TrEMBL record:
It holds the Pfam family Hexapep. Its main location: cytoplasm. In the C-terminal section; belongs to the transferase hexapeptide repeat family. It catalyses: alpha-D-glucosamine 1-phosphate + acetyl-CoA = N-acetyl-alpha-D-glucosamine 1-phosphate + CoA + H(+); N-acetyl-alpha-D-glucosamine 1-phosphate + UTP + H(+) = UDP-N-acetyl-alpha-D-glucosamine + diphosphate. This is Bifunctional protein GlmU. CDD domains: GT2_GlmU_N_bac (cd02540), LbH_GlmU_C (cd03353). Its cofactor is Mg(2+). PROSITE patterns: HEXAPEP_TRANSFERASES. Pathway: Nucleotide-sugar biosynthesis; UDP-N-acetyl-alpha-D-glucosamine biosynthesis; UDP-N-acetyl-alpha-D-glucosamine from N-acetyl-alpha-D-glucosamine 1-phosphate: step 1/1; Nucleotide-sugar biosynthesis; UDP-N-acetyl-alpha-D-glucosamine biosynthesis; N-acetyl-alpha-D-glucosamine 1-phosphate from alpha-D-glucosamine 6-phosphate (route II): step 2/2. It is found in: Cytoplasm. One of its GO terms (cellular component) is cytoplasm. GO terms for molecular function: glucosamine-1-phosphate N-acetyltransferase activity; magnesium ion binding; UDP-N-acetylglucosamine diphosphorylase activity.
Length: 456
């Protein structure tokens, strides 16, 4: 077995969140807090991850899948009791246990690795990662002796007024050698203000047993922020968002208004792309160079090429290639590919369709289950009639066809290459290449009709 195993505590209800959802599944940066902690544990070098679940365990287990080993803490009797539950999976383990909380989503793996290295180098049996802050409210305080050595940790609810003034806090992250850890956990008691088995008490106990304990200070307080309430969730969101946006700006992306721009960590954006306000970019979205995105654009899992301009639209699970302009008020739905140089104007919806190079869908059009070639012009108000109430059918429009305004193309149907469709047509039969399809009632003019009508 490897030297470093991570135990992640995720059994607590998160009472202060006032939620039916387990706290660790609340999202930050579009992903559950626990996902961020798992990732940090993975980058830290831990080869095995054990997650302690309890409140809402089915939901947490469903989220975890086979990403980690799972142990159940039936009753939430405290953080010490929670770690003890992992003991059964680590009976023969000799090495370091990295203890993490599922409610510290801003953690970074590199910081954990550094902490582990320092712990190893110090030769301590147990080390706690600490941080200094001007507002220590809610955290356990680190007690240090005359020579600055760590004596133990006191929880806020058990602290004296003097202890409450201490500004060095417990991040809730520890490296502890096994099997020592599980032996000392068995000796914990719950005679404290919360009546819980506090993990924090192991430091004092190990010290009493003559073991070396240590405290390593991290400089980045934001990174270890614990989320206990919705207010803190929002604070952490801002911190995470700012980090993501700063990195994009450092890499050459213009973000006009960071306060109204929401971009997930998974999103990639090329140089010299400009992001206008009120833009949401999510999931696997990837944007090329020199694009202009926004204002008011939401993209979920969308691939966007270079020099493409999108405004006021929602796109999901689709691809928009290079030098395309789309918007305003457009919905691009799954399995759609918009090729180079296409122009899509206002009030257009495209679903499960391919739109070829240089084609124009300027206004008020529905394209569903269609294959449109290149150089096609769809007039205002055209509809591909893809659904008969039972089944869906495809429409094919070949290169350079011109579909007149307000036409219905009733699928399955093919509009041949270079052909024309007369405005106002309902097309139910294929139109041959270079032909004209007209499907509408003929106009009749009746001379003098209006005069007669007025006088009748
Ligand atoms: C804990 C620490 C505190 C530290 C703070 C850092 C203790 C006693 N206190 O306080 O010193 O400053 O974290 O953020 O450890 N959990 C379980 N089972 C339980 C109880 C909790 O799995 O029975 C899990 C929770 O899901 C959570 C983590 O442990 O992920 C921490 O619990 P929480 O109640 O948030 O502890 P804090 O009061 O924040
Ligand atoms: Ca907490």
């Amino acid at each position: 077995m490897s030297d470093l195993v991570a135990v992640i505590l995720a059994a607590g209800k998160g009472t202060r969140m006032k939620s039916n959802l387990p706290k660790v599944l609340h999202k930050i940066g579009g992903k559950p807090m626990l996902e961020h902690v798992l990732q940090a544990a993975e980058t830290s070098g831990a080869t095995k991850k054990i997650v302690v679940v309890g409140f809402g365990s089915e939901k947490v287990e469903e989220f975890l899948g086979d990403r980690a080993k799972i142990v159940l803490q039936k009753e939430q009797l405290g953080t010490g009791h929670a770690v003890l539950q992992a003991g059964a999976l680590l009976e023969d383990f000799v090495g370091t246990v990295l203890i993490l909380c599922g409610d510290t989503p801003l953690l970074e793996g590199s910081e954990l690795k550094n902490f582990y290295d320092l712990h190893k180098a110090s030769g301590a049996a147990a080390s706690v990662l600490t941080a200094s802050t001007t507002n220590p409210t809610g955290y356990g305080r680190i007690l240090r002796g005359a020579e600055d050595e760590v004596l133990g940790i006191v929880e806020e609810k058990d602290a004296s007024t003097e202890q409450k003034a201490i500004c060095e806090i417990n991040t809730g992250i520890y490296c502890v050698e096994a099997p020592l850890l599980f032996n000392v956990l068995k000796t914990l008691t719950c005679d404290n203000a919360q009546g819980e088995y506090y993990l924090t008490d192991i430091l004092l106990k190990l010290r009493e047993q003559g073991e070396k304990i240590g405290g390593i200070i991290t400089k980045d307080f934001d990174m270890i922020m614990g989320i206990n309430s919705r207010r803190q969730l929002a604070e952490a969101e801002v911190i995470m968002r700012t980090k993501i946006l700063n990195k994009l700006m450092d890499d050459g992306v213009t973000i006009m208004d960071p306060a109204s721009t929401f971009i997930e960590a998974t999103v990639e954006i090329g140089r010299d792309t400009i992001i206008y306000p009120f833009t949401w970019l999510e999931g696997t979205t990837k944007i090329g160079t020199d694009a202009i995105i926004g204002p008011n654009v939401r993209l979920t899992n969308v691939e966007v090429g270079n020099k493409t301009q999108l405004q006021f639209l929602y796109g999901h699970d689709c691809r928009v290639e290079n030098n395309v302009t789309v918007g305003p008020y457009v919905h691009l739905r799954p399995d759609t590919v918009i090729c180079d140089n296409v122009k899509i104007g206002n009030f257009v919806e495209v679903k499960n369709s391919n739109v070829g190079i240089g084609t124009k869908l300027p206004h008020l059009t529905y394209i569903g289950d269609s294959d449109i070639g290149s150089g096609v012009n769809m007039g205002c108000g055209c509809i591909t009639v893809n659904y008969n109430g039972k089944k869906k059918y495809r429409t094919t429009i070949e290169d350079d066809a011109f579909v007149g305004c307000n036409s219905n193309l009733v699928a399955p149907v093919k509009i041949g290459q270079g052909s024309y469709v007369g405005a106002g047509s309902t097309i139910t039969k294929d139109v041959p290449a270079n032909g004209l399809g007209v499907g509408r009632g003929r106009q009749v003019n009746i001379e003098g009709w209006a005069e007669k009508y007025r006088n009748s």
